[in-house]
Amino acid sequence: MACPKCAVNPFSHSFVPFGLALSGEATLYYTAPARMTSRDDYSNLQCWTLHLDAVKGPWVWVIDCANMELHHSITMQFAEVFANILAMEHSKHLRRIVVLNPNVWFYGIVHGLYRSLPAQLLDSIWYARIDQDLNRMRKVLNIPSEAMEWLRITRAVSPNRRLEGPPSHDSHRRVEDHFL
Description:
By secondary structure, this protein is of the alpha/beta class. The chain is 38% helix and 16% strand.
């Protein structure tokens, strides 16, 4: 079952598919807490499990922590429950978690969960602090140029500017057309 809010606006909960990785084997998903438009249910576990349950097959999760503020953060209790769901129910297909612009909030969550999470999940986390890390990620995960172009534009656009949605697979649309 898809999330009804995200069916209308893909950035309601900011869980947006944007391409393929690993030679087309895994779907890329992008999450940016600062871009989420439905802040009222940010910590609603049901919304997030709808998204996770909709993911089929191998996937890579790109979490962009850029421009996060205090109201974008989650509680440690929510993080623990969510991480356990991720580890127990979704780690079989989750190939990698890539954290762009990691911040104190993300490091704190990972540190707080360090002893309670399986090593496999912790080892799947990569941090991309600078463009060199992003380029290494692109090469290692074999991400096509269209997905990388969308990701670079998304990172460059102000978080206050609404994004229209994920890139189209229609080859004649330009990546810039996805922004209002």
